[in-house]
Amino acid sequence: MDLPGRIDHTVLGPATTGDEVLAVLDEAMAHGTNACIPPCYVDMRGYAPDVTVATVVGFPHGQHATDVKCREAERAWDDGADEIDLVANAGFLRGGATDRYRADIEEVVASVPLPVKVIVEAPSLSDDELRDACELAVAADADMLKTATGFGDGGATVADVDLMSEYLPVKASGGIGSWDEARAMLDAGAERIGASSGVTIVEEWREATGAESDEQESA
Fold first, then answer.
1. Is 219 a member of any domain?
2. Are 8 and 193 contacting, i.e. CB atoms less than 8 angstroms apart?
3. Does residue 176 fall inside a structural domain?
4. How many domains does the structure of the chain reveal?
5. In a 3-state reduction of DSSP, which class is residue 101?
6. 74 and 111 in contact (C-beta within 8 Å)?
7. How does residue 1 score in pLDDT terms, banded at 50, 70 and 90?
């Protein structure tokens, strides 16, 4: 298993500094992970050109106007982002405005030639709502689903990942801090893990499996 390549090592706090982003990019280079960073720092990605860099759009609540989300995505692409993590508008979904929910995603997907992961905030949805969210993301031509921003009520669960993986590849995110927790999500069908503890997860995985680090392999 190429676990590091399935980890989005993340820093998305409301007061994240440029130095903290550089530290995450350093760690991503050292451990072979991807990085997920705030949009205002994507133009720093040249510091780590070999790292796959994701950024967020409509973060963290998803209630930006759709044209603003599209401009955010376009700017991220211009600045060098490789992937977009888009927060869907759960208010549209829960309020029954499903056409607006789908169109909001669809327009962002169409605005950039980048993979778009749709963050559905699964912990705030019933199973029926979650299935609707997944079906609408599929209809909007999204590339992946993502469980949560980590800023709402709760994070990734095995049950949600299992359900969501019936529709599209899943990025499990929110509250995953160890290899054991990450493994449970992968076993449930997740293709990607988003975590601020990306380094811890990779190091625990290497210790548990005996996998060598990139540094050890090149020695």
1. no
2. yes
3. yes
4. 1
5. helix
6. yes
7. confident
| 146 is a catalytic site residue | yes
**Does a structural domain hold residue 72?**
yes
Does some domain include residue 58? yes
- Structural domain of residue 60, as residue ranges? 4-214
What predicted TM-score, i.e. pTM, was given to this entire model?
A: 0.94
Catalytic choice (69, 117, 146, 160): 146
Length of the chain, in residues: 219
Q: What are phi and psi of 86, to 5 degrees?
A: -100, 125
Out of 69, 104, 160, 171, pick the active-site residue: 171
Output the six-digit token pair for 186.
């992968």
Which of helix, strand or coil describes residue 32? coil
Q: Is 17 helix (H, G, I), strand (E, B) or coil?
A: coil
Q: Which listed residue (85, 104, 132, 160) is catalytic?
A: 85
- Annotated catalytic residue 69: no
The model's pLDDT over 5-22, given as tens digits with 9 standing for 90+, comes to 999 999 999 999 999 999
CB 77 within 8 A of CB 108: no
* The amino acid at 55: T
- Token pair 């209809």: residue: 139
Instruction: Select from 144, 159, 153 the least CA-distant residue to 194.
Output: 144
Instruction: Assign residue 109 the CATH number of its domain.
Output: 3.20.20.70
**Annotated catalytic, 141?**
no
Phi, psi of 3 (to 5 degrees): -60, -45
